[in-house]
Every structure is written in C-alpha cells, then in structure tokens.
Design brief:
Helices cover about 5% and strands about 55% of the residues. With about 90 residues, the protein is mostly beta strands.
Length: about 90
C-alpha cells in the first residue's frame, strides 16, 4: 500500500489524503502528525477529506507525516503504508 497525495512541497494545507487501495480492505485508519497536530480517522474509502478545523491547525513551514493502515472486514490488519511526508511553504 502506498500514499499517493500529498507528498513534497505544498503551497497550502491539503484538503485530501489519498492512497492506493487494498482490494480486500474493509476500511482504513489514517494518521496525520506534525507541529502541534495528531489526527487519526477511519474510513472505508481510499481517500479522506481533512476536516477544516484540522487544516486550520497546520502551520506554514510545518512538515507533516501521514500513513495508512488497511483492515480486513473481519478486523485483521492487512497492510501498513510507508510514511509519506509533505511540507507547507512559508
């Protein structure tokens, strides 16, 4: 499993996190961390919108890391992505 976007340098805080799906996954847990931020959410889709209140907490010049865990419908862990990173320009 691999994170698709966002990665690298960004002009502003991203709206969506997106990754390559795992065919048999029932759902995913996404974790996003960075300066003053630790957010985690569960979704059935291979993408998730970052809530506006979380985006508002992202700072210019901040480096953020995110990863995804895929779970089977029965709850077992299927895969874990490598950590992806992005930085918001100052």
């Amino acid at each position: 499993m691999e994170g698709i976007a966002p990665v690298g340098q960004l002009a502003e805080a991203p709206v969506v996190l997106e990754w390559k799906p795992v065919g048999v996954a029932g759902d995913y847990t996404v974790t996003l961390t960075g300066p003053g931020l630790a957010w985690s959410e569960r979704t059935a889709s291979p993408r998730i919108e970052i809530p506006p209140d979380i985006r508002a907490r992202m700072v210019r010049g901040g480096e953020y890391r995110w990863k995804v865990k895929a779970f089977a419908r029965q709850g077992g862990l299927l895969a874990v992505s490598a950590e992806a990173a992005f930085r918001i320009a100052e």
